[in-house]
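Hey all, quick one. A colleague (J.T.) asked me to put the FE2/S2 (inorganic) cluster job into the tracker so the inputs and the structure tokens live in one place instead of scattered across chat threads. No bug as far as I know, just bookkeeping. Sequence used:
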Amino acid sequence: MTTSIRFLLNDQEMDMTVPPGLLVLDLLRHHLEKTGTKEGCKEGDCGACTVLLGELTDSGMHYRPVTSCLLPAGEIHGKHLVTVEGLNLNHLTIVQEAIVNEGATQCGFCTPAIVVSLTYGLMEKGANFDDEDVKYVLSGHLCRCTGYASLLRAGKLIQQKAHSLTPSATQSENILQLIEKGILPSYFSEVPEKLKRMASIPPGNGHLPSAKFIAGGTDIYVQEGESLPDLAVTLLNLFPEMKGIVQKGKNLHIGALTTFEEFAAHPLIQKAIPRIKDYMLLNASLQVRNRATIGGNIVNASPIADMVILLLALNAELILTETSPTQKDKPMRRIRLRNFYKGYKKLDKSPTELVKEIVFSIPEPDEQIHFEKVSKRRHLDIASVNSAIRISLKDNIINQIHLSMGGVAPIPLYLSQTCDYLSGKELNLSNIQEAMEIAQTEISPISDIRGSAEYKRLLSRNLFIAHFCELFPDQFSLKDLLNIHG
Ligand SMILES: Cc1cc2nc3c(=O)[nH]c(=O)nc-3n(C[C@H](O)[C@H](O)[C@H](O)COP(=O)(O)OP(=O)(O)OC[C@H]3O[C@@H](n4cnc5c(N)ncnc54)[C@H](O)[C@@H]3O)c2cc1C
Ligand code: FES
Ligand code: FES
């Protein structure tokens, strides 16, 4: 199976026929001689293959860093793909110069992708590029030899140069300034016109070529990577109908193709879950979050899937459709997310069914939400145990509660008996203690690479306690709660 794609590779217009599931990393290195993009882990972990993917939006061009080792070639149709070669000027860029001046490169294997990500930081934040942004854009990169202190110093030098820019509201305004100052190559200003002339994303036409679905690709390429270019696949991102977040009455509807970053950046989500940005930082890396979809997290069905744990506590429902999302008259069904998982990676879903939307009620002003995660490494690591809660009180009586926990059962777990026990009870130490014991009977952790069963039981108690300490600091001190767990 092949597909025709037209896209911009740096300043060049490309017209090719490729297998839609071919990895962009392989396309660049093996077919297009763009070897500045490096192959490291080929699993999204090291960041060495980072490229920028630019799309024309209503507010001009918008670029995101993504790992090309998890990106299907069929998706770059109509887009601007920027590799490190596409950032070259006839002198060192300010990013390259800063890396050289601070000795922030040794073997150089990670360096081209780091140049790409730091340049993205300038495009996104312009004059406001600060220390936190430097860490944010570097968080998806591993360097085996230099260490990170010199990269942070290089980031400081870049910030100093960025101070000559005028603060602006959008990425496309920043890009224009970077072109004017000779920091980005001038061809970037012609990109919007060139993309307009190219075909836009081909419509789905209601036809799914295969039930081998690829959304963000961040699980499926890790699991089945090498075989996908040879298979007939459906690139779900070619169905933009499944993207976006809207409010309908008292509910939020999340398109299954919404990425983690889009979810966390959306004003409706930030209002509903005020700490969503902090929680998201515990999740994967910027490059992976720019691709990973909520629907993919749900269907991949990992027992420690972070978004699933959050959505279980939000008491979310799924809308599934047996056919293409573009055909409006086709049957849909709704199922509570907590009833979707039937066993390890066993779902209440036919192979041809799509998760179309995720729906949850907008939290009332008296409701609180919290998410906790413990992993071996704070960033870019999957959880040993994670947990989330949604709770509301009336006169210190628990009015409504939803609790979930991951890494403690073959499925992402909704703690139904614990919730049943706590509903209608007074929020006090003895009830929390009793609930914690009930939770212990609901979980069944096993020993694996993420920790022993005993350790996970301990973590599950600690995260349970952490929810109440975080949400009700006037009522519970860490000391009181640790006492109850002996
Ligand atoms: C480096 C790295 C770090 C990661 N860190 C984390 C982490 O910290 N926390 C975490 O939870 N996950 C993490 N992940 C896992 C992954 O990013 C998420 O599970 C992500 O949400 C998967 O979404 P996707 O769109 O990439 O799915 P894909 O890989 O495209 O698809 C996954 C599966 O779901 C199916 N599918 C996808 N969408 C639909 C749909 N709408 N309807 C029906 N079937 C569908 C696909 O056919 C496939 O079987 C990480 C992955 C990588 C590579
Ligand atoms: S090669 Fe390591 S993230 Fe792509
Ligand atoms: S300089 Fe060698 S991996 Fe970073």
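Adding what we noticed when we looked at it: The chain has a mean pLDDT of 93. The first strand starts at residue 3 and ends at 9.
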